[in-house]
Amino acid sequence: MSNLAPPTKPPRGVKHPKETSGLLMSVIRTLSASESNEQRDREKAKLEKEYKRSDQRLDELVSLHYQDHTQVMQLFGKLSARVTTSREKIHAVKENLQACKLLLRCRRDELKKLWLEGIEHKHVLQLLEEIDQLREVPAQLTAFLAKKHYLHATQLLVSALSLGDGSLEGVEALREVRTELQAKKQQLHSRLLAELTRHLYIVSTQDVVALRRQGSGRDGNPLNSPFQRAGELRGSARVSKTRLTLLDVSVPFPNASSPRVGMNPGPNHTTAGDESDNVEEDVDAADPEAKSQHFMAILVESMALLNSVPDTVESIKIQMQTELLAIIKRTTRQLLDLSQQPTHSLGAHSTSLLLELMQTVFDQFRQVATAHASVLRSFARAADKHHIDVRLYEMPDVWSKVQAVLQLLLTDYLDIQNMAGDPQQAPTSFSESTSDISVYFARRRPPRQKRVPLFKFDYSSHALSINSYLKEQRTSSAKEYSQAGQSRQREKLLVCTPDPRNITQIFIPLMKFIEEIEHAIGCTPGNPCTLNAFLSDYIKEVFLGRHHMMVAASIESATKSLDAWRTTTSPELMSDLGLSRPLLQSTVMVERCIQDLRELMQALPVYAEHFLSIICNILRNYRETCQAAYRGIVQPDSEDKRICSAAWLKDEDISRFIKSLPNWTDLQAQKVTYRRRRPLRREETTEEESPEDVRQRNMKEAEILASNLGEGGINAHEILSDVGQLKGLAQLQESMEWFSTSILLFASELPSAPASSPRVHVASVGIPAMPETSVRALMQLAQEFEELANTCLLVLHLEVRVQCFHYLLPRANNYNRLVGGVDSQEPDPKVLELSRVLISIDEAMNSSLQPRKLKYIFEGLGHLIAKILISSAQYIDRIDERGIQKMCRNIFALQQTLTNITMAREIALDHARHYFELFYLAPEEILSGVMEKGPQFSELEYMNAFQLVHRSQAEPDYGAVNTHLSRLSDILGEVGITV
């Protein structure tokens, strides 16, 4: 084997011969199976050839691998020599170990004594080092506390206490140090609790107050005050961090299962757990309190190391309500101080300050709740990590204290204690409409005795009555204050005067905050929180009942007092209301009640439907009162007497006809246009029109009235002869129109919703959607007031015309005096009386109605008077020159009166004067004039003129009359024009 060359790899490109073993076996099988010698010889020759080839291949392989084989053999020889040497060395070491073992066995006792002495010296050195460390602990602890590195201080103190109670327990010289450390432990616990309380209630809320202070005095609008703007600026940035955290009651507390904190903290950081705990204290930080939540987690971890978590939790629960009340007190004092500054926009002790107080307190309570949620997670993590058995409070407990504090705050500002003891506050049934208010609208009824309420508030059967709740609240508060060692009496520091109406200023933000509380504690829709129940009980049991009585008293004063039906004459009030004419005081007072209820609908949107039902009831009863007042004017006590103008309007056909006339439609068009432009201000818009337009507009009305009232005459009891009654109608009309416009505007601004839509449960800004039926009822009431106003105006319009018929229509040959007698330069007494009546009516209407309405009343009156005077020719027996002059003087007097009233020349009366001037002419001259100038009057009027001319002759010729009438008919037929 040693002569064989080491095998080497064949060079690249050399092909290995195919395996020949298969060929050999094949040859052997062939030889054994062959039968002839020749075949065997051939196979043998082939076999020999293959053997030679194999031998040659073997030589080649040996020559190729010879060098490698030689090298392997040399290495093997070297390794064999080294192994032999090592065996010899191991054998020598084994012999030496046996010798050492023998020597150590001989010196065992001496070595053991030396080992024990070394251990004792080492323990003594360790004790001395621990004593030195323990003596330095107070100074180090003071240094840590001065820098507020509480976790380092706690770890140091716990480590020192464990040393003092451990190996150094028997050292008498350290007794004072141990006593001092125990005192330090109590002081540290108190300080940690104080720091945690400060961060929970002061540090967490300081951003709210700071931002509100920075924005103070920049805006005069209380609803956009700096406090509110600061809250809005914070809102977007705080939603994801604060509100979502405090509203999420399912946030899991982290499960910390890390080992205890080491007793020897590093030079820069102290880790109070593993990475999941993430509670580290950086001693190099400039401000350890920069991150409040992290700082509170360090405080909780320190308390866990001191094993004071149960006491801390109990202290937090006891002090929670006191600290929340302190927040309110601090905020109140800050607001009062801020309101005294000259640059501040809010006045001291105003309701705007109360709204600011509520907004600020709500923001601070949200921050406090967020801080408590963070502390609870830290407590849960520390309890799980250090295996502390403690019963933690929960977020619903925090919100419960918040609700209790807000209830005490509302008790002060809403004056609930005084209201609850008021014997006049009787609860009202709120499940049905307030129909009892109708008794306060009745007119001309004897005074009713004041009823004693059947039930007082103190004995309300409601499960959560205000009285019982206040007693329970005061009792529980007293217990908590006694436990905390504080007085039961709280210092009353208020930003405004206690008043039940303060609820209107704070209801919407308060309800929004209540919604947040209910969402945070998981209240169901049918199970509201205690604060919601408290507020609902107060509004239902106290506020609404009190407001009902106030509304009833106001309405009673508006309709029953001596001044109720007088007009408002105060210039300031008329300017505030945008009035150009005075209104009835009762209307203004009722409208103020409506506006007050409207403001309550906006301030208390949850009860908007209830207030709307009260408004509808007030309007229904006031409508009946006003209609009774109208009937008292136009319907005398005696049934056999009637006012002609009012009786006419009862006829639907006549009323429809008058309302279809152009002057009425034009008046309504002006009112509609005016409403669209500015609904609540009375603008006078008069447009100049041509006399022809006026004549065409009023001619039809004059003809219809003359045809209906021209027969039979109008008696004295059928007219309103008292101008005071006419003025009362005018004032009622103006008031009703203004009142209906106000109601229509209010109804048009109300959002309506189908009756099947869900009702409002949470307050929202503005009036919520009202049931469509209620809105329609309000619109219907407004239209009824408008119809009453229209009726009054139509009565005035007709009454002036009816009185013209009463004074001018001839009865019982009144015009016989137009012939003979003493010539008088004065007009007829009836004409003078009519002029006096028209002037009186104008004076009364001018101070009560707008010019456009006066125009409607007096416009066209000249056409009617002319029509009456011209038609009176058929009732005159005879007329002479003096009689014609008398009629002309009558016409001139009436024309002058109407001109002074309408400030326009009454052309229609010129037409009437021209008619009576025809009587100066002979019949032939009249016919000639018709042929030359055309007809100026109607055929009937010419016929009446011819007949009067012939009756006035000494010996009337009736045949000539017929001839003249026949010629008149022929002339008018030829002309083809009929006036």
TrEMBL record:
Residues 37-64 form a coiled coil. One of its GO terms (biological process) is chemical synaptic transmission. Component of the exocyst complex involved in the docking of exocytic vesicles with fusion sites on the plasma membrane. GO terms for cellular component: exocyst; growth cone membrane; synapse. Belongs to the SEC8 family. Keywords: Coiled coil, Exocytosis, Protein transport, Transport. This is Exocyst complex component Sec8. Residues 288-462 form the Exocyst complex component Sec8 middle helical bundle domain. Residues 1-21, 214-234, 257-286, 678-697 are annotated as: Disordered. Pfam families: Sec8_C, Sec8_N. Residues 45-141 form the Exocyst complex component Sec8 N-terminal domain. Residues 274-286 have a biased composition (Acidic residues). It comes from Zootermopsis nevadensis.
